[in-house]
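Handout, section B. The chain below has 411 residues.
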Amino acid sequence: MSSLLLEGLDRLGISYEFKRAYDTYQKGLLKEQIHTILINSEKIGNKIEELVGQEKYQKFLPYFPVCSNCNRLYTAEAYEYLQDEKKIRYKCQDALIGSKNLKGCGNDGIADITKDLGKLAWKVEFAARWQAFDIRFEAYGKDIMDSVKVNDWVSDEILKFPHPHHVKYEMFLDKGGKKISKSLGNVVTAQNWLKYGTPKSILLLLYKRITGARELGFEDIPSLMDEYNELEDIFFGKIKLDNEAKVVKTKGLYQYVNLLKPPKNPSQHVSYRLLIEICKIFKEDRIQRVTKKLLDYGTIKNVDPQIEELIVLAGNFADAFDTQQKIEINLDNTIKKALKEIADFLSTENEQQDIQNSIYQISKDNNIEPKDLFKTLYQIILSTNRGPRIGPFINDIGRKKIAQTLYSYVQ
């Protein structure tokens, strides 16, 4: 699990210092904190009961030595601390961990906190780490709120170290509303995500909102990829917003998504959804043929290695997922009538007719501003407000395929 996490952090470009819990205890990096906590164990046990109603640590010490006989951890329950010797007396007995019952060996033992392996209970371990490693900020999930509450008190009152500033976040859920869990096998890893999206799309997902539970799935990638382009356009002034507070917030989000090292110039943008649709057309020589289409559409001005990387990602997405998802759009009856006429026109066998001009004429016949009708078509086909010249694009995607999509909005 650690290797998956570290590889994901590396690929996202995040700087970190990794400290493995086993090494931390083996090297005795927490031994002073363990000693202070154990000599105050009675006070801590009473406070835990007061704060969260757990009575266990009024009877046992908040530390688990490794049993010297059977080498188990959580079965060795410590009941006395020999302060002058820095040793613990424990009894190895049966313990219920979650829904699993671990058998103890019955050993009566003594463990030296300066030499032997053991582990602090969660209710106090965060506090020990915070002081030992001088931690000033730590986010936490609301499922461990009780542990954080106790650790804050232990840090402030027992270790005399001001507890870190916190941000509370909530769980990611899968698209079925279930908790994402490695035991359930529904985890979305950075490694899998990066087959289809950029590192920045992951960072945007993480930074754009912290509060509230969020449903997460690979189907979020297209909207996040296109949202990043919009953030960049706002950052560089290509898109103007009237709300100054929103401008500041958006620019700040863009900076954090770029790990506080934003580029000096904007990149060449292509709608990720547009790339997906074109990638569906071309399986062979995909990069070259999709690039040519983008040049033909006038979507890009020149061949760009970054665009080629996006084509690979969008191609992977197009091959792996069914992207025919109907989005919700409010359409009045006039627009619906025009869309039906376009669908009827596209369903005819006469493929020599000019699609672009025909759509323009349908908009005029229905007293609709052409730009409004074109915008609606882009929203339906690409989930965006703009795109390549609509006529050639519809021809490439397939007239009858687009007709079927339009019928689904007007029937």
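Note. Residues 241 and 247 are 6 Å apart (CA to CA). Compare this with the example in section A.
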